Amino acid sequence: MTDLGKLTFATTEKILCELMHSAIERIRLQRLTFTTFSKQNSYKPNVPDIFTSADQEAQEIYLKGIEECFPEWGIIGEENELRKPSQNGVWITLDPVDGTRAYARKQSSGVGSMIAVMAQNRIIMAYVGDVMTQDIYGFREDIPEGRLWLDFRQQYPLHYTEKELNQSTLLIATRLEQYPEPVKKIIRKFKSYQTNWDGIGMRFSKLWSGEVNALLFNFKHFTPWDAFPILGISEHLGYRFYIWDLEKQKMVPFSVKLEMEPYPLQQDIFVLHESFYSRL
Fold first, then answer.
1. How far apart are alpha carbons 126 and 146 in whole angstroms?
2. Cα–Cα dist 53/2, whole Å
3. pLDDT score of 197
4. Is the pLDDT at 118 greater than 90, yes or no?
5. If DSSP states are collapsed to H, E and C, what string results for the chain?
6. 89-98, 116-125, 267-276: which has the minimum mean pLDDT?
């Protein structure tokens, strides 16, 4: 068989972004015609969940493309708890529809699609696509900045834009009164805060684009298809993760353990740029 040469980051990125484009088009086509199903996840057996026909079809698009283009890669997908072992130490995670409940409510925003590639226990590239705007946020480890593709076409570098604390907005994931008092005090240091229940990737996209300047979220369960894309892009852009330490009575760095299987993680986590931490 003819050897077509070495697989590069640039080639891999083009293939993955085309797969994402195709998956997003399929999700958009089903916005008014999808079917909703109930499901029970093995990692949280007592919590009812849902998926849609769009989740299934988008995952099938990713799966077919990856098996054709990267047959040795391992695959971890959200739907049907998809697992395919890796033959070369490279893994890809698939979250075909990020924000399934928002999609099922027929929201006009807050729905995404996410993939990430893991090798040697580190995230080497990741992409988060906005289903409604068709923008893609992403990074690959051979390029220092992140990238944003507007409507799949125009490409721009992603950079952190510094702001003073009293001019900054924090995005939170639940009502203010539900947080413990030390966390509330930190929230009140910001000029303003917004509450948002979009898919987790869509919440983080507001941070990467500069629409908000910090983020507070809760990983009730760590799942690789949710975690790897947001961790990879955020850390590449210089964002770090912090929690409130009850014993030390201050914010401390927090390292999210990267695992291939879901595990419980009931933790409020602040996401701040590394240059922002000292101002809190």
1. 10
2. 39
3. 85
4. yes
5. CCCCCCCCHHHHHHHHHHHHHHHHHHHHHCCCCCCEEEEEECCEEEEEEEEEHHHHHHHHHHHHHHHHHCCCCEEEECHHHEEECCCCCEEEEEEEEECHHHHHCCCCCCCEEEEEEEECCEEEEEEEEECCCCCEEEEECCCCCEEEEECCCEEEEECCCCCCHHHCEEEECCCHHHCCHHHHHHHCCCCEEEECCCCHHHHHHHHHCCCCCEEEEECCEECHHHHHHHHHHHHHCCEEEEEEECCCCEEEECCCCCCCCCEECCCEEEEEECCCHHHC
6. 267-276
Max CA-CA distance within the chain? 65
Tokens for 129, please give them. 């696509």
Q: Is the pLDDT of residue 164 over 80?
A: yes
From the CB of residue 27, how many other CB atoms can be counted at a distance below 10 Å? 25
Q: At what angle do helices 200-208 and 224-236 cross, to 10 degrees?
A: 0
The structure tokens listed for 265 are 């993680």
Enter the pTM of the model: 0.95
CB atoms within 10 A of CB 70: 18
CA distance 96 to 60: 9
